[in-house]
Amino acid sequence: MITTTNIIRLLAALPAAAAAASKPFDIKDLSLREVGARNTLDWRIWLEQDGEPISFWHDIPLYPDPEDKSIIHYYTEIPRWTDGKIETKRDEPLNPIFHDDKDDLPRFVYSVWPHKTYPFNYGSIPQTWEDKNHDHPFTGFPGDNDPVDIFDISELPPSYTGQVKKVKVLGALAMIDDEATDWKVIAIDVEDPVASKIDSVEDLDKYRPGVRQQMYDWFIYYKVVKGSGTNTIMGDGYQNATFAQQVLSESHDYWLDLMKGKSKPGKIVRNQTSNARFCSTYIPKEETTEAFKLPTESKILPAAEKPEEYNWWYYLDPENNWEQIKV
């Protein structure tokens, strides 16, 4: 809701907002503010720009170059070969990264042979939203209420949690999770040595043989051990890069409606520091620490131990029964 207080604050912030808008977004200006112990529910990471907290979800531009829809930004939540279920906190100011939970315990994924936990860098695509109020025409299911997910199959060293990267879109998987559309975009880092030669998932078969099918299989089977069965992917495999770009464009429009108040946000916190036109959600980044009572600096504690069951390999037979062997 637009109030008198919001209008006064907006007018006071206009000079700073105009200066910020004129400055191009640069990954080099970013840093992280991390507080707490990993593998615990109190742990958080906030994104900083010029040392001031901003939103991973709402402030990183989707496109580095708005004229080129094949290249996008994303931020890493789960680095390759790690098993913590790290996500974006929708219902807290500036949407920090946190460790997701179930029954008040941190969530992890099992290592299902031949994959050691997550076999790729996994994260979210900023300024997108899978709108829970609309059924997607391709799947017939509503969105899952999150930013669009992405998996980065680059062969560069693994990302770190909170890292912002530029990647080329290669395609997408239309996964259904709890009767909701949960798109998984496949991409490759623009700095990968073969990125200039790969424009589609089919190109992966030439330059990274086996990757396309192995990643698909991981999404099918990774929940079997916890008792959820195999996952459903609609459309008989990967959708092509052009289709994936259309999904992102559509989800960006849904996000714009969310930020403009045209869609019901539910529990989603929409605070952002980059666009004063969204006056009901805008706050200058210099005010965020005090306004949201955020920690003023990083305070990283030793990581907690994870449950022993996640230190094992799990092997599936043709009937998806599994056997456990310690790594």
From TrEMBL:
GO molecular function: inorganic diphosphate phosphatase activity; magnesium ion binding
Catalytic activity, EC: 3.6.1.1
Signal peptide (from-to): 1-20
Recorded superkingdom: Eukaryota
Enzyme class: hydrolase
Pfam families: Pyrophosphatase
Keyword Magnesium set for record: yes
GO cellular component: cytoplasm
UniProt cofactor(s): Mg(2+)
GO biological process, one term: phosphate-containing compound metabolic process
InterPro entries: Pyrophosphatase (IPR008162), Pyrophosphatase_sf (IPR036649)
Keyword presence, Signal: yes
Keyword terms of this UniProt record: Hydrolase, Magnesium, Metal-binding, Signal
Family named by the database record: Belongs to the PPase family.
PANTHER family in the record: INORGANIC PYROPHOSPHATASE
Protein name: inorganic diphosphatase
Native species: Emericellopsis atlantica
